[in-house]
Amino acid sequence: MWGKPLENLGLMIEDVGVLAVADLHLGYEDVLREEGLFITSQYPKIKEMILEMINTHSPDILIINGDFKHEFGEASLQEWVEVRDLIEALLKEKVKLAFIRGNHDNFIVTLMKKYELPLEVEVKIEDYLFLHGHRTPSQTAEKIVIGHEHPSVLLRDEFGTKFRYKAFLMGNYAEKELVVLPSMHPLATGTLINKERDYMSPLLKFTDVGEFTPYLVEPGVTVKKFPKVKNLRDI
């Protein structure tokens, strides 16, 4: 794999000095509260994980690859507070910031302008292309990085107990190398790629995901390469 999957759910690409993360979904707990589920904000942990990766791996560029916030419509109070806090924390670090617009990132442009930070549809760095993944790329590159799908893998132990793990996916799309990033948000487990066949991203809908290699993550602990997805479907 040409990037290094990290236990804190980011992808470090040493060749170009890029750390990429995706799908923070800040404010998700606010939405859950409206539905009657009262869950403590996961933002402090997300912030800690990102800052730890920056301090450990010293990237030149941090790319937030879409869905910085959660609510589709106007940003909630929680989103405004957490998005602003994270931007201000990142601006204190010695790293260039690049923000890619995801399908959840409506009504965030005004806030980004306040900090003079552009919100891009795609970012191309040398032969690496970064986009959220809810639409197909408009540029070509040999290596493509997306989020959006929130891939995870369901495994069972010998007693039948089920365990769900976030995962990085490595495979091919249109004869290009593709990496799908897991969601940074602890509660956004997304698509069970070894059980489901209906994918959200158009880059995966017409791609043989069974041939992808998953890298399962125990957040903050380890990342392990597993057999191809097709070999995990009966587990």
Beta-strand share of residues: 25-35%
Order of helices and strands: EEEHHEHEHEEEEEEEHEE
Total number of β-strand segments?
14
Spatial extent as radius of gyration: 17 Å
The CATH architecture name reads 4-Layer Sandwich
Query: Mean of residue pLDDT?
Result: 91
Helices, by number, come to 5
Largest sheet: 8 strands, mixed
Instruction: Give the helix/strand class.
Output: alpha/beta
What is the CATH top level name? Alpha Beta
Terminal-residue CA separation: 24 Å
Portion of residues in helices? Answer: 10-25%
CATH topology: Purple Acid Phosphatase, chain A, domain 2
Number of individual domains: 1
Low-confidence segments, given as residue ranges, are: none
What is this structure's SSE topology?
Blueprint: E1 4-5, E2 11-13, E3 18-21, H1 28-34, H2 43-57, E4 61-64, H3 77-91, E5 96-100, H4 109-114, E6 119-120, E7 122-125, E8 128-131, E9 143-146, E10 152-156, E11 162-173, E12 176-180, H5 202-205, E13 213-218, E14 222-225
Parallel strand pairs: 3-4, 4-5, 5-6, 8-9, 9-12
Antiparallel strand pairs: 1-2, 2-3, 7-8, 10-11, 11-12, 11-13, 13-14
Question: Can you put this structure into words, describing what you see?
Answer:
The protein has a single domain (4-231), classed as 4-Layer Sandwich (Purple Acid Phosphatase, chain A, domain 2). The protein is 20% helix and 27% strand. It has five helices and 14 strands. The chain has helices at 28-34, 43-57, 77-91, 109-114, 202-205, and strands spanning 4-5, 11-13, 18-21, 61-64, 96-100, 119-120, 122-125, 128-131, 143-146, 152-156, 162-173, 176-180, 213-218, 222-225. The strands form two sheets. Strands 7, 8, 9, 10, 11, 12, 13 and 14 form an eight-stranded mixed beta sheet that branches. A six-stranded mixed beta sheet has the order 1-2-3-4-5-6, with helices on one face. The radius of gyration is 17 Å and the shape is globular.
